[in-house]
Amino acid sequence: MTQVVSLAAADSAGERSPILPLMGELVFGLVIFAIFLWIIAKKVVPNLEKAYADRTSAIEGGMQQAEEAQQQAQAALEQYQAQLTEARAEAARIREEAREQGATIVAEMRGHAQNEAGRITEAAHKQIEAERQQAIVSLRAEVGRLSTDLASRIVGESLHEEARQKGIVDRFLAELEAGEIRPEKVGEDA
Q1: pLDDT, tens digit, 9 for 90 and up, residues 80-137
Q2: CA distance 23 to 11
Q3: Rounded to an integer, what distance in angstroms lies between the CA atom of residue 46 and that of residue 40?
Q4: Taking the CB of residue 165, how many other CB atoms lie within 10 A of it?
Q5: Please, how many CA atoms are within 13 Å of residue 175, restricted to the half-sphere of its CB?
Q6: For the segment 61-95, what is each residue's pLDDT rounded down to a tens digit?
Q7: Those residues with Cβ within 8 angstroms of residue 10's Cβ, 6 or more apart along the chain or in another chain
Q8: E strands present in the chain
Q9: Is 156 left (phi over 0), alpha (psi -120 to 50) or beta?
Q10: Residue 166 and residue 151: Cα distance in Å, rounded?
Q11: How many angstroms separate the CA atoms of 131 and 137, rounded?
Q12: How far apart are CA 60 and CA 54, in angstroms?
């Protein structure tokens, strides 16, 4: 600083310093610098401050939007988890209903199968009984025919008269079934 003052004093004394400009140039430069400073302060700085404020608000807005997005994502996650829980409960309910329906269907099918088995068994018993009756009738006729043939041979005359033969055999078998006739063994003494 002392050098600047000594240089300014030397300039006023008439000696010119090679480092310092002339006083008129120095004043002109200071005025131009002040004008540039004023232009920068009035035109450039407000634009810079506006850009800074816009950038700050954009960053703050972005942060606020990010927070809102995070809150929305959290709400969506909670809603998704609630829906997932509800869907799991619904699936469990549907599975339980399906099990119950399956058990009902199995019980119905067992009932139908038992009814069908009973019906088939009853039909088989009826068929067996019918075949048994048919066999009895057939055997009676055969026994009657054989008895008549045997009696014809023993007696020596023909007993092939159909109505008479049938009546004799039927009467004999009825008495035998009723227990009125007791078969006797040949060769036994009475």
Answers
A1: 999 999 999 999 999 999 999 999 999 999 999 999 999 999 999 999 999 988 888 8
A2: 8
A3: 9
A4: 19
A5: 10
A6: 888 888 999 999 999 999 999 999 999 999 999 99
A7: 16, 17
A8: none
A9: left
A10: 13
A11: 10
A12: 10
What secondary structure letter does DSSP report for 180?
A: S
Q: Are 152 and 164 in contact (CB under 8 A)?
A: no
pTM (2 decimals)? 0.37
Domain boundaries, the chain: 28-175
- From first CA to last CA, the distance across the chain in angstroms is 177
Write out the two tokens for 81: 């988890």
- How many whole angstroms separate alpha carbon 54 and alpha carbon 97? 62
Per-residue pLDDT tens over the stretch 35-68: 999 999 999 999 999 999 999 998 988 888 889 9
Give the whole-angstrom CA distance, residue 133 versus residue 146: 19
Q: Say if CB 181 and CB 172 are below 8 A apart.
A: yes
d(CA 46, CA 2): 38
